[in-house]
Amino acid sequence: MTSAAAAAGTVRLGDLTVNRMGFGAMRVCGPDIWGPPKDRAGAHRVLRRAVALGVNFFDTADSYGPEVDETLIAEALYPYPAGFVIGTKGGLIRPTRHSWDPDGRPEHLRRAVEGSLKRLRLERIDLYQFHAPDPRVRFAESVGALAELQRAGKIRHLGVSNVSVKQLAEARRIAPIVSVQNEYNLEDRSSDDVLAACEKAGIAFLPWYPLGAGRALRSSMVKRLAARHGVTPAQVAIAWLLARSPAMLPIPGTASIPHLEENVAAAALRLPAEELAALG
């Protein structure tokens, strides 16, 4: 039987194939993505339910918690099921609850990869993404450090996040890049050019903040389409992303099982061409 997440089809991450409905795991951490969840067993149940629904790609980062999210994934799912892919990220640090500071120094990235390997209980990370360019460090130096770790066998595939078309091109000159993770949703399409570059190069595009700040979900058009299909505005927003590009790999996150099930169900929602046109 086809799983719920498989209804949207698949996408390639290098030599890996995953269902095109992923899961952003950061929301199972504590408030503000800081510290452990109040209900650790409940967080484990959410993660396991995502896998049961056919989600075989999880997005996480060492900065989620910090160092909490990866640990929760391993606690809930190790030993990992066949075909399950974890994409994690490094390059942001959290000195305080509300701080997300870039650190692209090679020495930091080397420590970050080793820490992620330990927390995830892996010998090699399937997808490691440079979380954000650091204005104090040459971008090529940061990506080059990760390329060295890839050659050392600690990383299978490399991705970049929060990048421009120019930075993507620069990264690709240093090492093969299989994914880009930029903000993208109905409200914010400023990475349209990056998405187009990913489509052309056969690179997966992971839209973070896939539901935006909520303004689009409150729009009369989205509400009208949701009512027409008997679904939620969030499901319309996810279906729009899936229809926007075959390179798109949405990673909506939640700490709620009902919300998780609702998000994954959007994989089967097909919006007619005229409705997609109306959404722009």
Fold and architecture overview:
By secondary structure, the protein is an alpha/beta fold. The chain contains ten helices and eleven strands. It has one domain (8-213, 245-267): TIM Barrel. It has a seven-stranded parallel beta sheet, covered by helices on one side. Strand 1 and strand 2 (16-19) form a beta hairpin. The chain starts with 9 loop residues before the first strand and ends with a helix.
List the helices and strands and how they pair.
Blueprint: E1 10-13, E2 16-19, E3 23-24, H1 40-52, E4 57-59, H2 69-77, E5 85-90, E6 92-93, E7 101-102, H3 106-120, E8 125-130, H4 139-151, E9 155-161, H5 165-174, E10 177-183, H6 192-201, E11 204-208, H7 220-229, H8 233-244, H9 257-265, H10 273-279
Parallel strand pairs: 3-4, 4-5, 5-8, 8-9, 9-10, 10-11
Antiparallel strand pairs: 1-2, 6-7
Helix pairs in contact: 1-2, 1-9, 3-4, 4-5, 7-8
- How would you describe the shape? globular
CATH architecture identity: Alpha-Beta Barrel
Radius of gyration equals 18 Å
- Going across the major beta sheet, what is the strand order? 3-4-5-8-9-10-11
The largest sheet, given as strand count, sense and whether it forms a barrel, is:
7 strands, parallel
Give the topology string: H per helix, E per strand: EEEHEHEEEHEHEHEHEHHHH
β-sheet strand percentage: 15-25%
- Average pLDDT, to the nearest integer? 97
Percent range of helical residues = 25-40%
The helix tally amounts to 10
Structural class: alpha/beta
